[in-house]
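INFO batch 0412 | record 1 of 1 | parsing
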Amino acid sequence: MTTNPSAGTIHNTMSNELIRLTSGLPKLWSGFLRDWDRTLRSRNHPETTRYNYILAVSQLARYLADLPPGHGKESAAVDDPAEVRKYHIELFQAWMIDTRSASTALNKHKALQQFFKWLMLDEEEIERSPMERVKQPKTSKKLIPVIPDDETGRVLATCKGKDFIHLRDEAIIRLYYNTGARLSEVAGLQLGSIDLNLDSVHYFGKGSKERRVRFGPKTARSISRYLRARDKHPAANLSNLWLAERGHRPLTSNGIKLMLKRRGRAAGLTGIHAHRWRHNFAHEWKRAGGDSGDLMLLLGWTSEDMPRHYGASAAAERAQETQLRLGIGENV
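INFO prediction complete | emitting tokens
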């Protein structure tokens, strides 16, 4: 039976995140979140899902604590999630829309649905969920722009150098660019996930689904250079592939996210994040006439809706290229 070699490290990382997210919360809120995370772990929810769920509930708790006087029973809800009511959720949801976005508010809504469902069915702390009659926020379909090769080149140009941080960041960026992997999949890689004999990477995707993906010579070279530098790092004995620049600790998903933003700014670009390379991979695959079923296998999808959604922002470009290639209306 194949096991996920990163499981122990992920548990330790998430335990630290749980402590951070619940720090300063009232006793009942932090206790319920700790118990809920245990349930989520027992049901094999991915680390990123657990993190986002706990984050949403902790944000609700902190929002309620900051409510001004005059909101009825908010003082009871501040100390006890079982006292949260529909209007508390609606206030929080409206605040999320105003301060973040409707899509972020929708993500929080879904997370809170799961928390209060657990509080009602598993813990039997409430008879009805306060989410029961709260409508999901309406969101518009957002097309994520693919990232052109010249922009990727500009980002990679900021990684020129022989020091550890430059070698590490180039290897990470090339893996996203070359394999179209999710942020968490690359972040969760272990040393044993990379095979430089076959130039392939073993990803653990959503729902612990496994897949092996090949990468090209440039990516292989950048990974090999990083591994040589990694051997000299103080934390070289850790099983995690990616190490933080300082200290005896791995580089987390959030650390990679911040690194990509920083590299983007250094390249004079905005909106640089891992998911854009995933969309770019799908776009280039379709552009080359690749099979949708093969694309689903490579990117770890099970829903046939995903190939239509990814790379959609460049669909018109592909259609125009196909039109020119076919030469329809130019035969006479």
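INFO post-check: The radius of gyration is 23 Å.
INFO record closed
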